Amino acid sequence: MANKLISPSILSADFAKLGEEIESVTKAGADWLHVDVMDGHFVNNITIGIPVVKSLKKFCKIPLDVHLMIEKPEKYIEQFIKAGADYLTIHVEATQDPAAVLRKIRELGAKPGITLRPGTALDKIIPFLALVDLVLVMTVEPGFGGQSFMADQVSKVEALKQMRSEKKWQGLIEVDGGVNEQTVSQLKSADVLVAGSFVFSGPHGKNYAAAIKALRA
Ligand code: DX5
Ligand code: ZN
Questions:
Q1: Do the Cβ atoms of 193 and 184 come closer than 8 Å?
Q2: What is the pLDDT of residues 65-103, one digit of tens each?
Q3: CA–CA separation, 206 and 217 (whole Å)
Q4: Closest ligand 1 atom, CA of 12?
Q5: Which among 7, 53, 71, 199 is placed 20 to 30 Å from 13, CA to CA?
Q6: What is the Cα–Cα distance from 103 to 108, expressed in whole angstroms?
């Protein structure tokens, strides 16, 4: 893929001005909007849920890339899709039957994605590659923005790209966690970059266009 897609994570945006933040980041050239949903069980943090996704959908012109960090995602996927999730990504560790959940996401009209914690072996998601449009490689422990990039996860990105070139699956490779203008040099094989703190509170300040440009450079 020639040009990488950039998916800013609203976790680091100003929640009191979410509408303005989204407008700014869209104007700045964001391709997707990354929405981190946390339930206080699967990860040790609580963020936002279905009503926020629904409100975002009303005026957000770019696709909503929803990352579910919740236990038993099967209980909520229908509501997230009705609320407007375009891509809906679940954790392989969060459910007994990832294949059933991924099939259901597609049946309900969204694009299914699978992801894994840094400590989970890539092998765990291989059985599900044929069912997804997106694989998200976590380069931090899920739960919080602003953590340091885990370079030891890059081999997963490379392995996924290799498997894709061997026609073992097709879909996008996304990376989430600690992505900034330095670490991006290690992510040549990724198609979609999630960035929260780098875009919304990084060295480029409120110049979101400069931050996004730096990630694409
Ligand atoms: C972490 C989230 C990330 C987070 C990334 O659990 O999945 O999307 O917002 O934040 P940064 O880019 O600051 O590492
Ligand atoms: Zn995320």
A1: yes
A2: 999 999 999 999 999 999 999 999 999 999 999 999 999
A3: 19
A4: 9
A5: 71
A6: 9
